[in-house]
Design goal:
mainly beta, 9-stranded mixed sheet, 35 strands, about 50% strand, single chain, 7-stranded mixed sheet
Amino acid sequence: MKRVVILLFLALVCTISMAQIHRYHLSFSLSQHDFCDTIPIEFENDQVYIPVIMNGEKHRFNLDTGSSQGAIYKGTRIGHWTELGNVVSKDANGKRDTVRVIALPPFQMGHLMVSHYVASVFNRPLVSTGYDAIIGFDLFNKGICAKIDTRKKIMILTDRRGIFDEEKGYPLTYRLKWFVPYVMVSPFIRHVDEALFDLGSRSLYVLNKQSFDKHAYKSKNVNSQVEGKAVGHLAIGTFGTEDVDEVAFLHLNRFKWDDVCFTHYRTVTTQGGSRVGAQILRYGSVIIDPFKEQIIYQPYNGTDTIEMNNKPLGVAFVPWNGRASVGLIFEKSDAYLQGMREGDVIMKINDTPIYSFEAFQQFPFVEGQIYRFLLQDRDGKEKTVTTTR
């Protein structure tokens, strides 16, 4: 449910509304060199937020390693930027569009001043956000190393080579595709999967459906870890929701990052690319070293095994014609057993009318409580489903 923003820059000649195409570059400037700075961060709902000062005001920036550059949304309270042109952008679900590109006003992050930082301008996302802008992986491509420790709520930034060389941990070499980092992880024994290291995504790991099908074709062990399948969709990208297709509900015996095993982990397949997301920061700190092109994971428990035993996804809601609808539902979930189905549109929750997807997002759900949903199915018939949220 994330907006993975991967900017694709055309090498061929192209004119879009007679506007200039702005290419990827690292021309933004930093106020310090040969520095090491520790700055505070927030870790909320499996997202990393960095406090910054811009134009004398405090702002909250989201750290999104799945984005090649920065991003803001139309209607933001950030102003006084510089227009740079347009760019062709691709979101997490493979959907593309042309968007404006700007240079943000100078902003201060810890003791570091960042000037002429490039950001794409997107329409306000369908899912609510709690930040003013995105910082992308270009910060690291610029030659900045970082250690992100959500337990201490700090991020160490430095441009010094080798400063983390004595740190212990489990390294994975990454390679850049479209200027963002991809790593090789192992969701099944004797199987590897290329995944985007995407701190803009909340899940610990989701698996591309086509990649899963290739693994499943080769191994009965892979198929034994499927808890169920359904037709639907759940990932909401910058330009809309992923296409409807078959989704596999997986109960992985273990998911491996180098020698670290996340055991008994439940996840789903997605039509977008495989991703390792920010939930991994619940269980360990991460070092990003662009000089070695490595991402080092340091489990907080000091061992190479992390027991997950998380609950399976029950139901996912997505926008449909402005309303909230059931995008995906697990046939073993309570909601399914009570009669909720993919494609049902929410009309009311308890006695509260739900006229929009935004209204659904703002509804004050409490985990474990029982709710009464008035739904309209694909045939226009209404039904009531009572289920635990």
